[in-house]
Design goal:
Helix content is about 5%, strand content about 65%. By secondary structure, it is mainly β.
């Protein structure tokens, strides 16, 4: 399984890049909700496990990530998936909670690969 977060500074445009690529098993799927504009939005939990190198040592990683998918195109793909299925999600990080001192992050999916 792969977990990669890339944050780089692009000097030419003075923008920060925000890309996430993570794979794992679908752990839990929440009910689909609709935005005021009628856009379907579904949240699910992805259970990730991998072995990463840190300071020259191998480290076992296990985490659960909140993934949000929006729009009909991704829902067509996601509608065929089920709990326990392995997928890879590409997207970007955003903040889902602005309360308190500990911000909560999620991955907004732009593509899902089975």
């Amino acid at each position: 399984m792969l977990l990669r977060v890339v944050v780089t500074h692009k000097k030419a445009f003075n923008l920060l890049e925000n890309r996430v690529l993570i794979s794992g098993l679908i752990h839990k799927i929440y009910d689909t909700r609709y935005s005021p504009a009628g856009i379907p939005m579904t949240r699910f939990i992805l259970d990730h496990q991998s072995e990463q190198s840190e300071a020259g040592l191998k480290r076992n990683i296990r985490c659960k990530a909140l993934i949000i998918i929006a729009g009909t195109k991704l829902h067509e793909v996601f509608g065929r998936l089920q709990t326990g299925q392995q997928i890879t999600v590409a997207g970007y990080l955003s903040q889902v909670s602005y309360q308190g001192q500990n911000p909560k992050l999620c991955v907004n999916a732009e593509s899902i690969k089975v």
